[in-house]
Write a structure and sequence with these properties.
Helix content is 13%, strand content 36%. The chain contains 1 helix and 7 strands; from the N terminus they run H-E-E-E-E-E-E-E. By secondary structure, the protein is mainly β.
């Protein structure tokens, strides 16, 4: 006689879990890498790269005043850039074309490794924000000495 484990809802929970994973991957692909679900690029545009010691983030912020910008490092690897770009045209202007937006924005980036939040430098120069984040010691590569016989 074969004994099987009784599952009240059958394999439905595993199927629901799989669906949730697939939906998360879909939203990560279309919403987490700089593109929103409507097909346009997010503001501000960013470039992120690393070397052995630091992570670097360049962010295009033309027309933004330094007083309208906030930067946070949270959770060990989460960078948040928050600000507001003021309207550059008079209130009653009639636009013929408007590609540069204005107003509040927030951009959250998850870095692929933890950073040292005590060692972060940021500067805004010529409309480009440059953020330099020191890698946490655990994220830095370590050379391992190999011993012979």
């Amino acid at each position: 006689m074969r004994i099987t484990r009784w599952e009240p809802l059958g394999g439905m929970w595993s199927q629901m879990s799989q669906l949730q994973k697939e939906m998360n991957r879909l939203f990560d692909r279309w919403g987490g890498d700089g593109w929103n679900l409507m097909g346009g690029a997010q503001f501000p545009a960013v470039n992120v790269w690393e070397d052995a010691e630091y992570a670097y983030v360049d962010c295009e912020l033309p027309g933004l005043d330094l007083k309208d910008l906030e930067i946070y490092v949270t959770g060990g690897n989460q960078l948040t850039i928050k600000g507001e770009r003021q309207r550059s045209a008079p209130e009653n202007a009639v636009f013929h074309r408007q590609e540069r937006g204005f107003g509040s924005f927030i951009r959250m980036l998850t870095l692929p490794f933890p950073v040292n939040s005590e060692n972060v430098e940021a500067k805004l120069e010529n409309g480009v924000l440059q953020v330099k984040l020191a890698k946490h010691e655990a994220a830095k590569p370590r050379k391992i000495a190999v011993k012979g016989e």
